[in-house]
């Protein structure tokens, strides 16, 4: 399989997408995040153990332990190669092997988990309950790039600052992105202290040093790079998705007051680099094939994408129909045993730029991508006011107070607040594919 | 030794700074880059070999091979620990061991290389000529941060865009920085193709996709982080330099036309991420002790640094008196066997912010630094017009043509141009400490 046909395969369906497929594992057949059609990857070990972290694949409420499976040697060829790579302490090696191996592994595990498979015994012996698992970052992330692909978010944020011309003139031409901080990326469950930093109090000209007051989340997709490009070689649109391993959720925590004072002229720095949280499970690009959607329909008057950002496959199916939501669990709600409350929901298909366009743009000047590199999509806000992916938008810069069901109010986050991102893909005639939670908690500033 | 006293030590002199000290290696005693008072680190192997890369220390025209030295086991305690760490394929482990080990290693090697040392025979057996060496990046760089610490550069660039108020209001308060791309950092000798990208032709409103025309270098210092901070814990000024391993040269290659169109609102991206070159040798912070200088003298009216960016040691000796220069070797000069021509020179002591201030600011919000992280200082321009650290400034945005001695002209770089950065510290009564070359070459755009 050459990269070109691998790319086509991202949108083609095979037996692994059959909604009638059932597993011998009962929990996989109940409506949930991880049916047999999903099979996402994570790095895990048993919580509280000193086991080595290794790769696992989610099925129902269990994890197929790839290190245990590698030791049993029941698969062949590329599937076996994938399992050996997946047994390591990070997924980078598996990612670098590319879509041929990832897809062989997917098909192999699918067959083994199917009702009636002769491999049931071998696989049952490799299961670890998800409730017992502790996760680490799924990859050693070499570089992290945060994009800005929702025109709804860019317009809303721009409108607060420049009501007359909210969008920068480059927005409709360039999938805007910048380099983010790798060292502070953590996996779901991450906790971090409210950062201190410089900020400019409203109406003054002298900054102060204090704990951030405008603490925010950003609802984003995370995109893990699979096989890297050849050094210095641009990746064309037709090959772009063959260089993507899969998607997760990402919370780009932001201190708006620090960011506002520091970001000119070189972009966000301390306003973003104290914490970034990703969900532990990476849903393979192949599992998302049933949920592909046409790329953003540009209104009349918007420029069409330049040639290097455009192809027919992208126009027809470059987007992904993926429902996203943000939930908030406050300290008070936690103490009262209440469930988190939903703040907003949106859909990744409303992104102005697609994953393939991110890849093509990132590499057009020769920048090297490596397996395990991470992209953030940028805040995924939709066109509606209930679809804003940040408190900055929901509170309109802190001007509007959000009422929570328990009577609490918020403009920005308070100490003890947990933010939980969730996502799923659902389409008539296909099994629902979930992503698992991306949760993180804001602790008080260090005194 | 606790971190606080280690920090004080950066500015204190010991036997390793004695200008009278001479080595048994004759080339170390001739005026050059690498006398016995310098002892910088690199990662190297013999060129054309398939040897494993390992650490080395420059002395005269030779390299002390730390892997060979580790095998001979002639040092004790912390010096021996440092040599074992330095024998690995990157310097990260040595960096993480902190200043106590780095300084013990420095003192041990200094004693062994001194005229009359009983270790002469053992060390002689570990020498590899520099002319035979191939270098790799000295560390696995987890994160790369580029600062903007020269007010002369920020003012010059600002003046081209905003003649009335060239400096942003935050400049004198914040050591402005942003996250750069790690994957495209290479060691001296790096070659790269002229990037293609979007740019907005002057006087138009529609961008074009083409090879960059305004190719530039930036003369910068590189700063390698040593021991990281505790997770989420700010580093105070008094401890800041105890977290620095050493300094090198860094060329932040820039495509000004790509950068100009893309950088609003989130900062530089493709205009910078195609290549960044560092010099192979890292001069330890301890070797620079004789060349410390008072921090930038702020003119009346400039705000004083905030408390977290200020202490007496920094005011008195936070800067480093380090001469920098940029040389250009064109294709035509190379063909004619001519020497490179100097474009400008400047001094790191004219930086508005010091290395300690970069560390304190970077971590004040809880961002994690790790051993091997790299900072760029930002373009080091001085107050004079012959001290500009980029062609953007020297040609004033392309308006002024530079005449080269051989009759060629430049506004920006042409294909085949090599840019060579050099630096040294020199002070009456002390041995001259050099940094070695940081060279890179621009190749034509990929067709």
Word description of this protein:
The structure is a homodimer. The first copy, chain A, has 13 helices and 27 strands. With about 450 residues, chain A is an alpha+beta fold. In chain A, strands 6, 7, 8, 13, 14, 16, 17 and 22 form an eight-stranded mixed β-sheet that branches. The N and C termini of chain A lie far apart (about 55 Å). The interface between A and B is large, with 64 and 64 residues.
Quick summary of this structure?
Two copies of one chain form a homodimer. With about 450 residues, chain A is α+β, with helices and mostly antiparallel strands.
Task: Tell me the layout of helices and strands.
The structure is a homodimer of 447-residue chains.
Chain A: H1 3-9, H2 26-29, E1 41-46, E2 54-59, E3 62-65, H3 66-72, H4 77-86, H5 92-113, H6 120-124, E4 127-129, E5 133-136, E6 144-147, H7 151-161, E7 177-180, E8 185-187, E9 190-193, E10 196-199, E11 208-211, E12 215-216, E13 219-225, H8 237-240, E14 244-251, E15 254-255, H9 256-262, E16 276-278, E17 283-284, E18 292-293, H10 312-317, E19 319-320, E20 323-329, H11 331-335, E21 341-347, H12 355-363, E22 374-376, H13 391-394, E23 402-403, E24 409-410, E25 418-425, E26 433-434, E27 438-443
Helix pairs in contact in A: 3-4, 4-5
Structural features:
447 residues; six-stranded mixed sheet; homodimer; 23% helix; 25% strand; globular; eight-stranded mixed sheet; disordered N terminus; 27 strands; alpha+beta
């Amino acid at each position: 399989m050459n990269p070109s046909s691998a790319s086509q395969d991202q949108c083609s369906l095979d037996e692994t997408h059959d909604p009638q497929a059932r597993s011998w594992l009962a929990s996989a057949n109940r409506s949930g995040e991880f049916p047999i059609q999903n099979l996402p990857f994570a790095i895990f070990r048993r919580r509280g153990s000193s086991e080595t972290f290794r790769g696992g694949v989610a099925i129902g409420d269990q994890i197929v332990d790839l290190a245990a499976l590698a030791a049993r040697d029941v698969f062949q060829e590329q599937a076996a190669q994938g399992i050996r790579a997946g047994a390591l302490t990070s997924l980078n090696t598996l990612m670098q092997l590319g879509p041929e191996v990832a897809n062989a592994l997917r098909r192999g595990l699918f067959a083994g988990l199917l009702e009636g498979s002769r491999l049931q015994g071998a696989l049952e012996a490799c299961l670890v309950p998800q409730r017992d698992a502790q996760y680490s970052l799924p990859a050693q992330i070499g570089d992290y790039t945060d994009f800005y692909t929702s025109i709804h978010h860019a317009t809303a944020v721009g409108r607060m600052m420049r009501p007359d011309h909210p969008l920068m003139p480059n927005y409709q031409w360039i999938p805007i992105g910048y380099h983010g901080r790798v060292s502070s990326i953590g996996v779901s469950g991450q906790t971090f202290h409210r950062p201190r930093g410089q900020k400019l109090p409203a109406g003054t000209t002298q900054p102060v040093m204090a704990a951030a007051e405008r603490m925010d989340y950003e609802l984003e997709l995370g995109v893990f790079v699979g096989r890297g490009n050849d050094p210095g070689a641009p990746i064309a649109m037709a090959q772009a998705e063959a260089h993507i391993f899969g998607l997760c959720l990402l919370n780009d925590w932001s201190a708006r007051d620090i960011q506002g004072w520091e970001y000119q002229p070189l972009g966000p720095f301390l306003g973003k680099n104290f914490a970034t949280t990703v969900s532990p499970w990476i849903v393979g690009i192949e599992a998302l094939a049933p949920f592909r959607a046409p790329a953003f329909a540009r209104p009349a008057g918007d420029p069409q994408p330049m040639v290097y950002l455009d192809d027919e496959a992208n126009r027809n199916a470059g987007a992904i129909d993926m429902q996203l939501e943000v939930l908030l669990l406050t300290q008070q709600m936690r103490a009262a045993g209440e469930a988190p409350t939903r703040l907003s929901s949106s859909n990744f298909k409303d992104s102005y730029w697609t994953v393939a366009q991110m890849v093509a743009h990132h590499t057009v000047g020769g920048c090297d991508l490596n397996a395990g590199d991470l992209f953030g999509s940028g805040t995924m806000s939709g066109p509606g006011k209930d679809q804003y992916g940040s408190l900055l938008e929901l509170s309109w810069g802190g001007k509007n107070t959000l009422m929570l069901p328990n009577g609490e109010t918020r403009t920005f986050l308070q100490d003890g607040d947990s933010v939980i991102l969730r996502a799923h893909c659902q389409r008539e005639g296909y099994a629902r594919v979930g992503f698992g939670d991306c949760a993180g908690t804001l602790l008080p500033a260090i005194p």
